[in-house]
Every structure is written in C-alpha cells, then in structure tokens.
C-alpha cells in the first residue's frame, strides 16, 4: 500500500512540476522560482496524486471517480491558493477558476494520451508474442 501511495505521489509531483514550469514560463511575470511556491506546488501535487488513487477503486464508475477527483483536486487547490493568496481573493477571482479548469482538462488530456500510448505498446508486445508463438 505504501509503495502504491508513493507511486501516485511521484506521478503527482511530475504532473504538478510540469504544469508549474509551463505556467511560470508562459503565463507569469515571475522570473524566478520561489521556494515557498515550489514547496506548495509539490505538496499540492503529491496530495492530488494520492487523490488519484480513487481511479483504482473498482466500485466507482469512471465518471464517479472523475467527479470525486475533480472535487478533491479543487479542494486541495483552493486550500493551497488560500494559504498563499487568501481565500477571499481566490473565490472571487475568475482567473483562478478559468485557470483551474483549463489546467485540469489539460492534465486529463495528457494523462489520457499517455494511457493510450501505453495501451498501444502493450498491444504491440502482445501481438509480437502471439506472432512468435504461432511460428513454433
């Protein structure tokens, strides 16, 4: 169980760090990486990675898991943003909500593409295995 949690945390770090660097590089006037923001992003990303374990629970349909994940991710993001910016500032800021939705959808698309590519590789390996076993 600990190994599975760590795997999800590390994946969360990867996605969160990638999105953080994209946001800084393209959408921020910030020119340096702030240690407090970096730590906040890592903690937030790790927690979102843990929340992603909800997709491993078989009793939930994909849609239910996605809705629960969205709500969990939103709560974690609101918590992190309110610590750094103030809750009132975040709740009434349309830019926050638009950014959150765009980033959530973008990460979801990246994960779906990555999953599709992995499935294709597995299917190719299976096809090669069957082709080799048919020759014998």
Provide a quick synopsis of the model.
The chain is mostly helical and 136 residues long. It has 5 helices and no strands.
Please explain how this structure is put together:
The chain is mostly helical and 136 residues long. The chain is built from five helices and no strands. Helix 1 crosses helix 2 (35-51) and helix 2 (35-51) packs antiparallel against helix 3. The longest helix is centred in the C-terminal third of the chain and has 42 residues, at 94-135. The mean pLDDT is 88.
Rg is 19 Å
Order of helices and strands: HHHHH
Q: Give the overall shape.
A: elongated
Low-confidence region ranges:
none
Number of helices: 5
What topology emerges from the helices and strands here?
Elements lengths: L1 H26 L7 H17 L10 H24 L1 H5 L2 H42 L1
Helix pairs in contact: 1-2, 2-3
């Amino acid at each position: 169980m600990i190994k599975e949690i760590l795997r999800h945390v590390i994946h969360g770090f990867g996605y969160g760090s990638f999105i953080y660097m994209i946001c800084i590089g393209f959408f921020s006037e910030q020119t340096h990486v702030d240690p407090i923001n970096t730590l906040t992003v890592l903690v937030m990303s790790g927690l979102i990675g843990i929340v992603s374990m909800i997709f491993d629970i078989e009793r939930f349909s994909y849609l239910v898991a996605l809705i629960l994940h969205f709500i969990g991710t939103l709560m974690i993001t609101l918590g992190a943003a309110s610590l750094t910016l103030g809750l009132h500032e975040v709740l009434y800021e349309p830019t926050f909500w638009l950014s959150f939705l765009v980033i959530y959808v973008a990460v979801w698309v990246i994960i779906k593409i990555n999953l599709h590519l992995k499935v294709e590789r597995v299917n190719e390996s299976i096809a090669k295995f069957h082709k080799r076993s048919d020759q014998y």
